[in-house]
Amino acid sequence: MNKGRLLAVAIAVATLALLAIGTIWPVPSAVAYAGGGKGDLLVSPSTPDAAANDLGTQIRLHAWDKAYSSLANKAEFTQSQFIHDLTGYALSLRTYATLDGFEVQPLHQSANDAELIMKLRWSTVVGTFEDKRDVHVVRIGDHWAVNWPIVPEQHVPPQVIPVNYLRWDVIKSGSGDDWGAQDVEAPHVRIVDMHPVNRADGVVVMGELLNEDVIPAYVSVRATLVSKTGSVLDSEGSFDMISHTLLPKQVTPFVIRFPGIDLSEVGSIRMVPQSVLVSASADPVIEVQNQQYNAPPGATLTGQLSNQSGQTVNVAHVLSSFYDKNGQLVWVAGQYIDRVLQPQIPVDFRISVPEDIARKINTERTVVSTYAVGSFQ
Amino acid sequence: MRPGRVFAFVTTVALTTATAAAGQSSDMTLPPSVAAGSAFSIATSGSGKAVLYVVGPGQAVRHDVVMGQPVSFAAGVLYNAGHYLVILAKDSSTDTEALDVVPAPRPETLGFLAQPSRLPVGVHNGISGAVYVFDAYHNLITTPMTASLELSNSSGTMQSRSVPTQNGLAWAEMDSASKEGAVKFVARIGGISSTRIIDQVPGDPCAITISAQPENGKLLVQTAPVHDCSGNAIPDGTIVTFTESYNDLQSTVDVPLKQGVARVTMPAYKGSKISAASGVVAGNEIIWGGGR
Predict the structure, then answer these.
(1) pLDDT grade, residue A53 (50/70/90)?
(2) Which of A42, A48, B197, B282 could form a disulfide with B277 if both were Cys (CB 3.0 to 4.6 A apart)?
(3) Do A185 and B116 touch (CB under 8 A)?
(4) Average pLDDT of B59-78?
(5) Which of residues 110-129 of B touch A (CB under 8 A)?
């Protein structure tokens, strides 16, 4: 046998050996990505952590049958309820979210049960959100199974909610109209506050925009950073960090980020508010209840959103402005609500505030923009 | 500029240059000027046959001519105002002369730009109107004329201005009234008029007054009817922001006015402070004493 054949045989043997090792003792991530997920193909959940990890993997793979059948308390709810608990009972951000990752933190363990925290990190088109569940894990024979803490769907009592809020419709001039023909004027909007700050990841320009007209406006804000020599450093828009539909006399905060730019490089900032006349409705009205600023460490603004209309709101975006004791705007932050807002059923929100800014905050103001399927907002 | 006009311009320049170089006497007699769209004729002298070309802005006309007979142009043939070149091409030579077509003296249409279409009440010089006067063929009439600009509502004329046109344009500024409502902005020149509608809307709320009363364990907070400083009712749909503060808790809600009043149900905490604001205007603050 010559050297070449010997080398080929050696490579083949080594490949077979590695395949065998990988199959018998797979790393968990490889199992997950291979679709095995359940883990007990080769390693049974012999610990509470393993049971929770297996469940997390199955949720990530949308292996709903396996995930549901692995639960210890599955008799308490149906598989459909389990799925809807994770993906939402109605169209919401959860519906199209994917589980980006999860983390299991053990709290307490005895011979027959254990307490864990499962942090599920979901990825959506507007960023990630975390779903934290306190999980009870029980020993059943020689393996462990999770008691899933299902959040039952809250039902609105059957009723009629009369809604007679205003709605604005727009008829614009046609393409065949003569030169100089009159059209409906765009709404008048005004920036009433603007404040740039220097952050570690770049310049952040924040402010507030007022619709000072008597008609609704679709608004956005564009900012251009100009250097001290007069050259343009960057130009960015507020994107989703603004409540785009503004009713008459309504105020929205906005944030524009300029990553990688230091405020010391900036000579001036050009702000351009833009407004377009749109059809809009004054419904739904969202009340921000029990809003509370929790001082540092770990500063947050918490509260509840209450939908006072009869319409289900599929996606809600909370935007909060924070002011110092002189009433100066010091920070703007937001959070998307991952669950639908059913009429009259409060939904919690929680907005984190950077530690260095948190100490300056004296008051805050919160607005909510909404999207409901089949409506303009 | 359209290709036809470019062609006409180039042709005009070329032929003018050629004529100037020739310096010959002409066999045709032109009127000093012609009103756009009117009928006219060009007299010719001599004998034989020729071809007459009339070239101008956006137009070129050709006529076969028997020399010694006038060439007639019907009404509406030459309708673009401007400087035309008339070329008589004979067998042995070419005569070239200039003809000015001026806008028809009678105005037919007005281009009326009124800004803005919507503004708050009580704005000094807030409404501007610019009127351009055109003849029936959309030529700008540059002859000075008197334009009348008038702002009126259903009860009569509110403001009017008489302004002479300069180079076909007249403009004026006017104040918005103190009472809300749509007004007609009319421009008139020589019996022709054009109308625009200006919507005068209420200004900012002048004062917001709120009151509260218990309702089913909660607090019903509502504004008094909201008006601007001229007494106009603020339109429905305008947002009023209610804020309730109690210890470290705060509740806020943006409520649209409905039938002139904003109304909301809020948590009932004894000692809570409740305030309202609309845009940049703040209202009064009340302290809820538990129904007393």
Answers:
(1) very high
(2) B282
(3) yes
(4) 93
(5) 111-114, 116-118
Concatenate the DSSP letters of all residues of B14-41 into one string. HHHHHHHHH----SEE--SEEETT--EE
Q: Supply the range of the domain harboring residue A205.
A: 167-172+182-280
pLDDT in tens, A338-349: 999 999 899 999
User: Regarding predicted confidence, which is higher, A76 or A159?
Assistant: A76
3-state helix, strand, coil in chain B (%, to 5): 5, 55, 40
Report CB contact under 8 Å: B117, A184: yes
Domains annotated for chain B, with CATH where assigned, are 3-102 (2.60.40), 109-201 (2.60.40.1930), 205-287 (2.60.40.10)
Q: Is the pLDDT of residue A20 over 90?
A: no
Find the mean pLDDT for residues A226-243.
95
Burial group, residue B253, by CB count within 10 angstroms (0-12, 13-18, 19+): buried
Of A326, A309, A335, A311, nearest to A360 by C-alpha is A326
Q: Is B237 on the interface with A (CB under 8 A)?
A: yes
For chain A, what is the domain count? 3
Q: Does B84 touch chain A (CB under 8 A)?
A: no
* Mean pLDDT for the stretch of residues B7-29: 56
Interface test with B, best of A164, A192, A214, A361 (most B CBs within 10 A): A214
Higher pLDDT, B248 or B101: B101
Cβ pair B237:A212 closer than 8 A:
no
User: Is residue A31 within a helix (H) or strand (E), and if so which, with residue range?
Assistant: helix A28-33
- Sign of the torsion formed by the C-alpha atoms of A361, A365, A366 and A367: negative
Q: Tell me, yes or no, if B267 comes closer than 8 A to chain A by beta carbon.
A: yes
**Is the same domain home to A42 and A139?**
yes
What confidence category does residue B128 fall into, taking pLDDT thresholds of 50, 70 and 90?
very high
Residues of A in contact with B238 (CB under 8 A): 214, 247-249
pLDDT above 60 (res B65): yes
Single-letter residue type at B137: Y
- The shortest C-alpha distance from B267 to chain A (Å) reads 8
- Contact check, Cβ <8 Å, A212/B116: no
Interface with chain A: mutation pick from B238, B244, B245, B249, highest number of A CBs within 10 Å: B238
Would residue A6 count as lying in a domain?
A: no
State chain A's mean pLDDT as an integer. 88
Q: Is the pLDDT of residue A33 over 70?
A: no
